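Running this now, will post back.
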Amino acid sequence: VQRILQVMDTRNQVIFTLLYGAGLRINECLRLRVKDFDFDNGCITVHDGKGGKSRNSLLPTRLIPAIK
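Update: finished.
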């Protein structure tokens, strides 16, 4: 996984890490908005996930600087 991340640009690293690090599905990741990130509590609010349900997922701490 680390080798794959090393050859990606920052944008793709963030997307890839959200997919495997936060357990997001592709559509969930692509629908994220700035307001969905709670940096203080280290979580992401995922709207309209599988089954049309909303949920919270952990925000990988290594992504916080790249997302901000």
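The chain has one domain: 2-67. More later if anyone needs it.
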